[in-house]
From TrEMBL:
SMART domains: NADH_4Fe-4S (SM00928)
Family: Belongs to the complex I 51 kDa subunit family.
Organism from which the protein derives: Natrinema salaciae
Residues annotated as signal peptide: none
Molecular function per GO: 4 iron, 4 sulfur cluster binding; metal ion binding
Gene3D superfamilies: 3.10.20.600, NADH-ubiquinone oxidoreductase 51kDa subunit (3.40.50.11540), NADH-ubiquinone oxidoreductase 51kDa subunit, iron-sulphur binding domain (1.20.1440.230)
Alphabetic keyword roster: 4Fe-4S, Iron, Iron-sulfur, Metal-binding
Record's protein name: NADH-quinone oxidoreductase subunit F
Pfam families, per the entry: Complex1_51K (PF01512), NADH_4Fe-4S (PF10589)
SUPFAM superfamilies on file: Nqo1 FMN-binding domain-like, Nqo1C-terminal domain-like
Length: 509
């Protein structure tokens, strides 16, 4: 076996066989080990996931700027692919796609059709293509660029775990630089909701890029300390990130300390994450102001960002000026999940419609509705909405990065009720709207099954919770309920009359 070294970028090697899958997946070894055993002459590189779960493991055979894609191949196919590479050829006839590309590309070549053709691969570019743990395979921006350019461009924070979600990150960075104390960067990747796979995909597929982005932000705000928090149950991911930190320790100016966060949904909220990092027994969001930028981890000025915000910042530094609109620069990443054969992670430009994500997955049945955001996203019958924070919010949808496709067997009332009940059990209990409002919301939905649909009361409660909640759970819990009523009010009235049009509801919440 010829070992893959870190002396040259993976894109410069030819021929080469790449095996793309989750580094922590139980089935990752067979395809990789088969490829390694088949030939002593062809380099075999284990890469991270592409984001398209249906394709994993994905074997990519490359010769002189020509790559053949072989999704989920059997051992015989892997043997044939590697044998062909030994002769300087790719098995075009046996491939799902063959792409011509620059031989030195550091980004996954994109087929013209199929799930990998959906959207674009700016932030996702390295995922599935480069060695996740080889710093030499990445163009490290933290060594030569100042993140001030990102702030000047107006980049918005992304994701539930980001303290600057849908707000300009420059405001956070400026506040940190102007506040006395030793600043720190916290990357909050602790999300217990399995619907959300964006940050995990990025951490598995391009961890060195994440570390590079963290270092660039830390350098800009003057921080010498950084923390990367992942869920305590993700032991395989933690080991993978430890390897990435070890690989980058002598290369990057700042590398984060890895911390295991508690397996609680509420701990994914930015300031609740800080409480967990400080070791507090009660995990709850902090009352603001002051913001974490002024009084964060142990009272230090703190930037709390998501993985995708970090990589959007890094991508903007690579491009000099980020793509997107003036109000929402960059791209947006979404996990496409729900009633699908396998989930997918898709990256959309600001002028792309959310409807494009349907081409990345195989839907089980006909589409009835989608929940866009996260578990507390907005319910909609149409995905003809552009992928910007402004347009998503205007449509009553969430910007947290999940598109959950739900088929005709789903009931809008039950879907809304399940999410209200989740909010009632998972909120921190710190503020009255979050603690009592979620309970009242759940009871009002239970009343629908009992024959009473109090629309005005539900809407008023929702407005109160949105405006007065201290935490995002309380503020966002009404969203799936209100949007479901907007889209499916006759269905709610039918339930009050004792009938479920979908035929799925047999008992109360």
């Amino acid at each position: 076996m010829v070992a893959v070294t870190d002396t040259a970028p993976a894109g410069d090697r030819s021929p080469v066989c790449r095996v793309s899958t989750h580094p922590t997946a139980a089935d990752r070894e067979p395809a990789f080990e088969t490829a390694r055993r088949t030939s002593d002459a062809v380099p075999v590189v284990r890469t991270g996931p592409t984001g398209i779960a249906a394709y994993e493991p994905l074997v990519l055979a490359t010769v002189d700027g020509r790559t053949a894609f072989h999704p989920d191949p059997g051992p015989e196919t892997v043997d044939a692919v590697v044998d062909a590479l030994e002769t300087g050829e790719v098995l075009a006839d046996a491939a799902a796609a063959v792409v011509e590309h620059d031989p030195g590309t550091g980004s996954l070549p994109v087929p013209e059709t199929g799930p990998l053709s959906v959207g674009r691969r700016d932030v996702l570019g390295p995922c599935g293509w480069v060695d996740p743990l080889a710093p030499d395979d990445y163009d490290l921006v933290s060594l030569e660029r100042d993140a001030a350019a990102v702030g000047d461009a107006g980049l918005l924070g992304r994701g539930r775990g980001d303290a600057a979600a849908d707000e300009a990150v420059d405001e956070t960075w400026t506040a940190i630089r102007e506040t006395d104390g030793d600043p720190v960067v916290v990357v909050n990747a602790n999300d217990t909701d399995d619907r959300q796979r964006v940050d995990r995909t990025l951490l598995e597929g391009a961890p060195i890029a994440v570390l590079d982005g963290i270092a660039a932000i830390a350098e800009h705000v003057g921080a010498v300390d950084a923390v990367l928090s992942v869920n305590e149950t993700e032991t395989g991911l933690h080991r993978h990130l430890e390897s990435a930190v070890d690989a980058a320790a002598d290369v990057l100016p700042v590398v984060p300390q890895l911390v295991a966060g508690p397996d609680e949904y509420r701990a994914g909220e930015p300031t609740a994450a800080l409480e967990a990092l400080e070791g507090n027994d009660r995990i709850e969001p902090r009352i603001q102001p002051p913001s974490p930028a002024v009084h964060g981890l142990y009272g230090r000025p703190t930037a709390v960002h998501s993985v995708r915000t970090v990589l959007q910042a890094r991508r903007a530094l690579q491009d000099d000026a980020p793509s997107g609109t003036d109000r929402d620069p960059g791209t947006r990443l979404f996990t496409v999940t729900g009633d699908v054969a396998a989930p997918a992670t898709v990256e959309l430009a600001s002028d792309d419609s959310l409807a494009a994500v349907r081409e990345a997955v195989a839907l089980d049945g006909a589409l009835k509705m989608a929940c866009v955001g996260d578990i507390f996203g907005g319910i909609t019958e149409t995905l003809e909405v552009s992928a910007t924070a402004e347009t998503l919010a205007a449509a009553g949808l969430g910007t947290e990065g999940v598109v959950e496709l739900l088929n005709e067997d789903r009931c809008a009332v039950a879907t809304a009720g399940e999410r209200a009940r989740f909010a009632a059990t998972e909120n921190s209990g710190r503020c009255v709207p979050g603690r009592e409002g979620t309970k009242q919301l759940t009871e009002l939905l239970r009343d629908v099954y009992r024959g009473s649909f109090e629309l005005a009361k539900i809407r008023e409660l929702g407005r109160t919770m949105e405006r007065t909640s201290n935490c995002r759970i309380g503020a966002h819990a009404p969203r799936p309920v209100i949007t479901a009523i907007d889209e499916f009010e006759p269905t709610f009235r039918a339930h009050a009359d004792g009938r479920c049009p979908s035929g799925t509801c047999t008992e109360n919440l």
